[in-house]
Amino acid sequence: MELWKNFDRLDTPAEILEDAYRYIIIIDLGVIVMFAYNLCAGLLRAIGNSVMPLVFLLLSSALNVVLDLWFIAGMGMGVAGAAVATVIAQGVSVVLCILYVMARVRILIPGRKHLDVGRKLYWDLFSQSISMGLMSSIVSAGSVILQYGINGLGTLTIAGHTAARKLFAFTDMPLIAMANAASTFVSQNYGAGQPERIRKGMREIYLYSLVVMVVTVLLMQVSAEWLVRMVSGSSEALVLENGARYLRWTSPFYAVLGVLLSTRYALQSLGEKVLPLFSSVIEFLGKVVFVLVFIPRFAYNAVILCEPVVWCFMALYLVAVYRCNPFVFTGPRIGIDSRSHTRASSTGMMLPAYSIEDTSMSSRSPCTFAVPATRVFFGTTMFPACMGSSSRSFTACPSVRVWSWCMQAAIVFLPIA
Question: Is this prediction's pTM over 0.90?
Fold first, then answer.
């Protein structure tokens, strides 16, 4: 009953309220299946096997289409049938992943001895998962708020937007796939102490995002309306026009989205927990502003431009943070200092210490610096650089200092919003 009231608060049209309620209930009941698939696929990708998760995903998608046709057209289950088909298809992909692991990759099957890895590793995993979970929650909250603004524009607008979003979810898969690849690539090179490979890989990923953008723009200019008609099954002019306009207006920003996703995943792989989280705060606040200020004035045009504009601000922030990362942009050779694995920070917290050989200096002598656990919280944390006895502040980077002030304002006003 409470969920029904929440749909009503979002100004959901009465004619689709019951279907929306049924769909979300079924999807929520199957959330453990989604978790299991992401876990299995993540484990396979972590050991360098990105092919089999893709194969299982393709099989699951094909099965989902078949079950959609059967449940919706054949059995007349409507929207509930689409939800059931999704859960079943994902369940099949989980079973396939588990069978493959048991048959071919038994190294991923843990034994009792593998559970005794020390408290630090468990804490690192827990804190990273909390950060990523909180980030997803903030993003979802922003999406719910944006949906509130969309719901007030009528059912035809909702239909066109829904069709366009389905196509968007399909066309941004190359960007998501590359971002996932960036996560694995960066984490492996971070562990191997190879910052130069990270820099080179990220540059190539940014170029890849630009190529995806060009291809998508050309595709949408030619076939956007036809694609919306195919996905929505509607011939209503408003549905086709709004859906096609969404695809054509957002496609030039795919390069920005690619930079955003890959940089955020890379920062998480570098052990950053707090800073990527702030990008979600930017997204949340941006959507709140659009719903309160721009959508009432500019209607669906504001809905279309909301996410691309927010992407630009998020990408600027994340790239600024990435460019100031002490591991990637300090020196070419970084590893754990054999003389001192930890040292105390000014707050008394024990922090990991790294030995860096600065090949740019004539003395070429190694020096040691520590990576603070609370990176630039409120813009006050200092990052010693590997330049002899000199040090530089993280906030010396002007763009980061400005974003730090923005984050302080966001934290103050977020409860009010």
Answer: no
